[in-house]
């Protein structure tokens, strides 16, 4: 399967390539705004549709990761990269007749739950389970842009055959039959190789001089990541399942390891994709030595 990854040089893209790149199942095309020192990269800017078009020819699936990820990012930056850029990637995929589109959505589509209920929400016994069907509650312009991406993908898939098209032609915005499937993966927390464990954010803070080990801040971040951690091997498994999933249409899945403290409902991801997470943040009581 020929798979194009936008934003391939980032943390999530690198983890996916590390997990799946050595298999014979996939041939990855890595697209990013800058070159990568260790692998071939198609250099293109997702904010420029003309710059994208030719790179999507003969591609079977797109994994769209490219985004401005700063939660405090300005509206202009989010608008250009995450909203216009996402539309451009969808349009380029549609024009190239790419059938499958996997969108890197985010926990921040419902992040207001965490803001409202932290730190109690990190207790594994806390009574809250957010399903993929709960109303969105974005916590930032970044979260809002991920809500847009999900809605845009649904529009592209579901407006292909509009029975009212002759009566209401202004409602028909996408006359192409592609992509035929759009899967939004609401990723919780993925960190780089060095910090791919439930104490990763806490240890990163120590390394950066933000707090001391065993401080309140350290313990708070460890409690949080034990709930939100998506390990690299679980990310690889999820991506593999999504690429192999053949149901047409739109769907939303949670991207998180099998953490006891997660406050999202993984049953849909398990049932539909056959996801069996290998990692659980609750099983860790200290960082790796």
Model description:
- This protein has 289 residues and is of the alpha/beta class.
- The protein has a single domain (2-109, 130-191, 231-278), classed as NAD(P)-binding Rossmann-like Domain (Rossmann fold, 3-Layer(aba) Sandwich), CATH 3.40.50.
- 35% of the residues lie in helices and 13% in strands.
- The chain has nine helices and seven strands, in the order βαββαβαβααβαααβα.
- The chain has helices at 11-20, 49-52, 75-95, 112-117, 141-158, 200-208, 216-228, 232-244, 267-273, and strands at 2-6, 27-32, 42-43, 61-64, 100-106, 181-187, 249-255.
- A seven-stranded parallel β-sheet has the order 3-2-1-4-5-6-7, sandwiched between helices.
- Helix 3 (75-95) packs parallel to helix 5.
- The longest helix is centred in the first third of the chain and has 21 residues, at 75-95.
- It is globular.
Write the layout of secondary structure elements.
Layout: E1 2-6, H1 11-20, E2 27-32, E3 42-43, H2 49-52, E4 61-64, H3 75-95, E5 100-106, H4 112-117, H5 141-158, E6 181-187, H6 200-208, H7 216-228, H8 232-244, E7 249-255, H9 267-273
Parallel strand pairs: 1-2, 1-4, 2-3, 4-5, 5-6, 6-7
Helix pairs in contact: 1-8, 3-5, 6-7
């Amino acid at each position: 399967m020929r798979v194009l990854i936008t934003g391939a040089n980032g943390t999530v893209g690198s983890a996916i390539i590390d997990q799946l790149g050595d298999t014979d199942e996939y041939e990855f095309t890595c697209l990013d705004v800058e070159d990568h020192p260790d692998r071939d990269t198609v250099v293109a800017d997702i904010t420029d549709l003309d710059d994208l078009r030719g790179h999507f020819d003969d591609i079977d699936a797109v994994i769209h990761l490219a985004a401005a990820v700063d939660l405090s990012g300005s509206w202009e930056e989010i608008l250009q990269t995450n909203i216009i850029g996402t539309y451009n990637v969808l349009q380029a995929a549609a024009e190239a007749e790419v059938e499958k589109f996997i969108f890197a959505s985010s926990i921040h589509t419902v992040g207001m739950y965490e803001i409202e209920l932290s730190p109690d929400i990190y207790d594994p016994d806390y009574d809250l389970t957010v399903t993929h069907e709960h109303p969105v509650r974005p916590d930032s312009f970044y979260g809002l842009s991920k809500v847009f991406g999900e809605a845009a993908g649904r529009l592209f898939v579901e407006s292909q055959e509009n029975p009212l098209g002759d009566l209401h032609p202004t409602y028909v915005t996408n006359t192409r039959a592609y992509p035929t499937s759009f899967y939004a993966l609401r990723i919780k927390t993925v960190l780089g190789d060095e910090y791919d464990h439930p104490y990763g954010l806490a240890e990163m803070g120590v390394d950066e001089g933000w707090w001391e080990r065993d401080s309140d801040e350290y313990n708070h971040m460890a409690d949080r990541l034990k709930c939100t951690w998506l390990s690299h091997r679980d990310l690889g498994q999820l991506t593999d399942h999504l690429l192999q999933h053949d149901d047409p249409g739109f769907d939303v899945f949670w991207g998180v390891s099998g953490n006891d403290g997660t406050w999202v409902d993984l049953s849909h991801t398990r049932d539909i994709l056959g996801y069996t997470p290998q990692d659980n943040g609750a099983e860790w009581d200290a960082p790796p030595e």
